[in-house]
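Work Package 3 (structural annotation) set out to generate three-dimensional models for the target panel prioritized at the project kickoff. During this period the team completed the workflow that converts sequence records into discrete structure tokens, so that structures can be stored uniformly alongside our sequence database. As a representative example, we reproduce one entry of 137 residues exactly as it appears in the project archive.
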Amino acid sequence: MSRLTTLKDKIQYRIKKSKETVFLVSDFMDLSGRDQILRALRTLIKENLIIKVGKGIYSKAIKSVISGKFIPADNLRNIAISALKKMGVEVVPTKAELDYNNKLTTQVPNGFIIGVNKRVSRNISFGKAVIRYETIN
């Protein structure tokens, strides 16, 4: 096995071996300082290994068979839910999801609104798709 000498190599190894598709900067804080980690992550973005979907939130990248461009390895809703859980935010059904599940409406929730138990200030987006939050108490 080759030796992982640079910080970029260590981060790249962790990302490739992980079954998860979402990574926070805090996942790599045991390797080095924040500035060096961010520099290595920017390099991995240029190499199309990962995509930045929010402040300190990264996703594995795959090449789209349709457009040939690199896209997140999972859909944006699943990425957002995974990132929120890693940040300690509880994800709950929105009012629209509850109404639909209780058969009070036939309007299908769009999936870009996620119910959370506390205020979230991070924006999670890719392209024109943006995740919004609904605080449920």
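The radius of gyration is 17 Å.
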